[in-house]
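User: TIR domain-containing protein, Brassica napus:
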Amino acid sequence: CIFQPKNFAMADFPSSSQEVSKQWQVFISFSGKDLRHNFISHLEGAFKLADINYYIDYKETPSESQNIFFKRIQQSQIALPIFSSQYAESKWCLNELAEVMKQAKQGNLRVIPIFFNVTPKDVGSPYGSFGCKVYVESQHNPSSLPIWTKALKNEMLLIQEILASVKKVLALEPNTHNVPSREISPVISGRISSSRKFFFVEVMNQRIKQLQEMIDFNCDQTQIVGIVGMPGIGKTSLAEEYFERSNDRYSFNKIISDIRERGHHYLEYKLLEGQKLNEEANIFSKKSFLVLDDVSQKKHIEFLLQNRRRIKKGSKIVITTRDKSSIAEFSPEIYVVPPLNDTDAWQLFNDHAFKGGASSTKGNFPKLTQKFVDYAGGNPRALEELGKELNGKDEAEWVTRLENLPYQCNSIIKKELKISYEELTEQQKDAFLDIACFFRSEEENYVKCLLDSECGDVVKKLAEIFFICISGGKIEMHNLLCAFGKELRSGERMCDHRKTTTILRDAVQQETKDVRGIFLDTCTETKGISVDSKRFTEKFNPMNLRYLKIYDSLCPENCKVYLPDGLEFPFENIRYLHWENIELKELPSDFNPKNLIDLRLPYNRKIERVWGAVKELPLLKWVDLSHSTKLTDLSALSKAYDLRRLNLKGCTSLDKLPEEMGNMKQLVFLNLRGCTTLSTLPERLNLISLKTIILSDNLEFLHLDGTIISTLPPTIQNFKKL
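Assistant: Predicted structure for TIR domain-containing protein:
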């Protein structure tokens, strides 16, 4: 729409009754150089990638006659009028629109209007800025006004007919093969920014291409693909777009949405469409292309599982789910929807955070933006919702929200995540919350030992629903899920140091009986925290508390929790006890470690022994007593037969190890560096699993018989007293 004729008569319109062959799939009508060099260029690139045959004005030699463009409209299957503020200023575009609407009314053309920085109301109203520009342009050609106005009004009526049923905005890359003959699918945006272009075009094309590599419509074998990923990652958008581009391949095509929210027999009802359950039903007699969206349980697809052998060979089935285990019986190929890269994520966030003309480069907004983008981890839904939440707020409000992010999930995101959470068993919920609050980024086997002692392999289940992922042998969790978990049960799992400090200092009894774990980092405390022994026991139910960690992440030896009256510790269900610089010579005598798995008491200046009497330690696997400079007695560990790691680094007063240590057949790691008083090891060592031993320079005797150690490092010669 860049050619502006000097003289134009309505008689130039060709007769629409002529039979014209369809040479083009899409005719693009637009106005404006800025649009051409930005949005239109991206749209063209998307069409090329998708092999869509489109027509645009620069494919013709410039002339003053518009007849050739009217002919191209008649030769096209779909027209894409892109309404912008400049569209109404161009009588060339308005004439094109009149012809487009004439062809659409006669059933010769399908229309997909795109609204770029204008709304359908702007286009249909004679009083808005769009209508005013039409009126101004008509003053140069008064006879055109009735036709232009009628075209715009028809457009508005057609839009109104479908707006009631269209719930989601379609992508900016329509599929010309799939649009019903009497349907217009509008793309409406108050501000179609580069983020939307990237997400709906560049990103979508890349993902569609990956799906196409997994599904071959020319293959006679039935193929099933699961599109999986965490909530908000874009599973449904991808499946819908793939369906729109591919539903012309077979005669029986179905996309069934929101299956999670429907009843047990919903899928059967939708697939049979009132037909009898026999071989003549379409689902069994024809090759089918099915997209089943948001499956959460095996029972949702029970109908397909029971009739899988009856489905016609060559059918293609795409299933979106948050839970891989729900479709495992199909043995499908799996496509995990990847997160957005940093560039696309930044643009998508800015698109929502800086609406209304706000500057994204002002002050500290770029740095703050990067932190929010990092937090979202490439999740499109999170980027959009966080952007909307921050839109219109000043820098100080951004900073405050950033500080609360680890403990306060966005309300809309939280609602979405809670859907999956509520489908978990109580044991799975506990495991998820324990990881979110306490054990994120820990070794997989270590976390399993802490969690699975009574609830089975829940870690596997959490990975299947994308609540966690296993990376490099460690359990990782998305920031969104971590914040969701911390906020969901903050009263039972105390990991916010601000709230925890207040509770420990508060002399008034609070409702803390259901507390399952306490993690307190004292690095930000300028004053020490004095804990009353009896009040500590009264605050927390001895049968509930399982995890206790009191530490200083910056300087462990400066942990500032004081015990002026000692400590009572009747918490027999404790599995994890980590207390740096504990002000005790030994742990309380009432402590029963029968469920203890991990004991960490590093940087303790007072502790001389772990406890007095020898106690049963059936589950203890990890012990860290490093830098306990007054530790002299390890007899408390005599019955730790399942111990795997023992760290005694810097225990300068320890002069011997218990003889019973020779029976620790599971011990893999032993650190004795800095044990300057220790001169020998027990004579009878049966450490058949030992792989790593770190020794002190002061060592005089080393007995390795009974171990699997076959060679010693060259640095052994540095032990001068050995």
